[in-house]
TrEMBL record:
Active site residues according to the UniProt entry: D134
Family per record: Belongs to the pseudouridine synthase RluA family.
Any GO molecular function: RNA binding
Top-level division of the source organism's lineage: Bacteria
EC number: 5.4.99.-
Entry-linked InterPro entries: PsdUridine_synth_cat_dom_sf, PsdUridine_synth_RluC/D, PsdUridine_synth_RsuA/RluA, RluA_PseudoU_synthase
Functional summary from the UniProt entry: Responsible for synthesis of pseudouridine from uracil.
Source organism phylogeny: Bacteria, Bacillati, Bacillota, Clostridia, Eubacteriales
Span of domain Pseudouridine synthase RsuA/RluA-like: 87-253
Protein name in the entry: Pseudouridine synthase
Reactions catalysed, as given in the entry: a uridine in RNA = a pseudouridine in RNA
GO BP terms in the entry: enzyme-directed rRNA pseudouridine synthesis
NCBIfam families found in the cross-reference section: rluA_subfam
Short name of any one Pfam family annotated for the protein: PseudoU_synth_2
Length: 318
């Protein structure tokens, strides 16, 4: 069970509990309605309905957990858990692993392993992905354990745009998630840091590949070169938007595709690395419940370390 507890302040006296839950606690209408139907909302230890009229100093309790099931087969895995609390679990995903089951990947996915972990640790949770990574991208992924945490984090996962294409600003109480990646790219970038503000478009409904095109959604990537190698750069990328393949598309478009990226770069990189050299190494955000700042990191995987070493050796041999 996972609970949110709050004492009613003077300004909410005489108002309906549904207003308090949505305005003060930031719960969605859907969550509040479901909790009320299931009898998971209490005032002073008594189950109440959404039209309950608040009194000053009422003790309000909402159980944000509910009995749910998911059609995902549990599988024993050695998960690299970086952080866990009552609302979220953050995992460092290995490369070559699909995040969630698909028609072609029903087993061996991260979700299969997480469901098994929840079962083994007696947690009544389903897998609610806050973020996703491509199969061949490694690094940090946030999974919410309940509807409340998923709602609070998902809407802040990436900036969105309005009808005019302007980036929307988040509300004062929003939880910003800053995602940083390490990429190893072909060639040396002219500028050591900068911003790529280039729209990304899906050219057809069946197309896997994305392109930079004015028809696309506004997409913003901030980059900084953190190490110069021989014919390559190690680049830190920070996302301001979260489009599919965003970093891969942007870096390829400016002439510096990621090593091992056969979709947007060369198919001849297998001697260096067997997948795209892209790793989600850092997450900065607030805990949805405590608002405590979290800064989580995941070390570079061995294949990317070896690639950096090999390019450095070439540099030293010159």
């Amino acid at each position: 069970m996972s609970y949110i507890r709050e004492v009613v302040p003077k300004e909410y006296e005489g108002r309906k509990i549904r207003d308090f839950l949505k305005e003060k606690l930031g719960l969605s209408t859907r969550l509040v309605r479901g909790a009320a139907i299931d009898g998971r909302i209490k005032a002073n230890n008594i189950v109440v309905k959404m039209n309950y009229v608040l009194k000053f100093n009422d003790n309000i309790e909402v159980n944000v957990s509910k009995n749910e099931s998911q059609n995902i087969e549990p599988e024993k895995m050695d998960l690299k858990i970086v952080y866990e609390d009552e609302d979220i679990i953050v995992i460092n995903k290995d490369p070559f692993m699909v995040v969630h089951p698909t028609k072609s990947h029903q087993s061996g996915t991260l979700a299969n392993g997480v469901i098994n972990y929840f079962n083994e640790t007696h947690q009544s949770c389903i897998v609610r992905l806050v973020s996703r990574l491509d199969m061949n991208t490694s690094g940090l992924i946030i999974i919410a354990k309940n509807q409340y945490a998923h709602m609070a984090l998902s809407k802040q996962n990436a900036m969105d745009k309005d009808k005019e294409g302007n980036i929307k600003e988040h509300s004062r109480d929003s939880i910003e998630i800053e995602k940083r990646y390490i990429a190893i790219v072909h060639g040396n970038l002219e500028a050591t840091e900068g911003t790529l503000d280039l729209p990304i478009h899906r050219p057809g409904p069946e197309s896997i590949k994305r392109i930079v095109d004015e028809q696309g959604q506004r997409s913003i990537t901030h980059y900084k070169v953190i190490e110069r190698l021989n014919g390559a750069d190690v680049v830190e990328c920070t996302l301001e938007t979260g489009r599919t393949h965003q970093i891969r598309v942007h870096l390829s478009h400016i002439g510096h595709p990621i090593f091992g990226d056969t979709l947007y770069g060369s198919e001849d990189d297998e001697e260096y690395i067997k997948r795209q050299a892209l790793h989600a190494y850092r997450l900065d955000f607030q805990s949805p419940r405590s608002k405590k700042p979290l800064s989580l990191r995941a070390d570079l995987p061995e294949d990317m370390k070896k690639l950096i070493d090999s390019m450095s050796i070439k540099d030293n041999d010159k």
